[in-house]
Design a protein that fits this description.
By secondary structure, this protein is mainly α. The chain has one domain: Ferritin, CATH 1.20.1260.10. It is built from seven helices and no strands. The chain has helices spanning 12-18, 20-44, 49-75, 87-95, 102-130, 134-161, 164-184. Helix 1 crosses helix 5, helix 5 runs antiparallel to helix 6 and helix 6 runs antiparallel to helix 7. Bound molecules: fe (ii) ion (2 copies). Pfam families: MiaE. It comes from Algoriphagus kandeliae. GO terms for molecular function: tRNA 2-(methylsulfanyl)-N(6)-isopentenyladenosine(37) hydroxylase activity. This is tRNA-(Ms[2]io[6]A)-hydroxylase.
Length: 193
């Protein structure tokens, strides 16, 4: 359903579980970035009513996720701390087409967001199915459902605001690029992506 071209290396979940504090910190920042990215779109495309009205509740939802990740950290006596370098998102940013019309730019942002949601969803599923901590299993299961919904929302929105055929073609390019990025990234247990 997520159409990702490369499944996560099955070793990832095992090493992530051993570094769950790092994973939770990185995850908190993922939620912060998801909320921030929606806010940026709302400000940039304030004339698009459907976009504004659809993304506004998603900001609240992502911020709710941030709060829930923070609760998980606090109840385990873990430290939050500074944001780490996000190589995955930086690489995806490199693929955003510069120039083009305002709506073509929007397509790029929406597809990049969709992709991050899809990959997060896949990783949350792996965590929910494989880690020992029962509370975190349930936690990641619930978040997986929510991010899957966001993934669909972003893709559908891209098809609403731009020629769906062009969007589908570009989506395939994004999927292939993302698979290449992951293939070339070091496997590490302290990052969600
Ligand atoms: Fe989220
Ligand atoms: Fe999300």
């Amino acid at each position: 359903m997520l159409h990702l071209k490369l499944p996560t290396d099955p070793r990832w979940v095992g090493i992530a579980e051993m570094q769950i504090e790092d994973i939770l910190v990185d995850h908190a920042y993922c939620e912060q970035k998801a909320a921030s990215s929606c806010i940026s779109l709302i400000v940039r495309y304030s004339d698009l009513d459907y976009l504004v009205d659809t993304l506004t509740p998603i900001v609240a939802e992502e911020w709710g996720h941030f709060e829930r990740v923070m609760d998980q950290l606090r109840k385990r006596g873990m430290k939050f701390g500074k944001q780490r370098k996000d190589e995955y998102v930086a690489k995806l940013n490199d693929f955003v087409k510069k120039g083009g019309s305002r709506m073509e730019q929007l397509t790029e942002y929406l597809l990049m967001n969709a992709l991050i949601e899809a990959r997060s969803c896949e990783r949350f599923k792996l965590l929910s199915k494989n880690i020992q901590d029962e509370e975190l299993q349930k936690f990641y299961y619930e978040l997986m459902i929510s991010e899957a919904g966001h993934y669909v929302t972003f893709i559908d929105m891209a098809r609403k605001y731009h020629d769906p055929e062009k969007v589908n073609k570009r989506w395939q390019e994004w999927l292939e690029y993302e698979a290449e990025v992951l293939k070339n990234m070091e496997l590490r247990g302290d990052r969600m992506h």
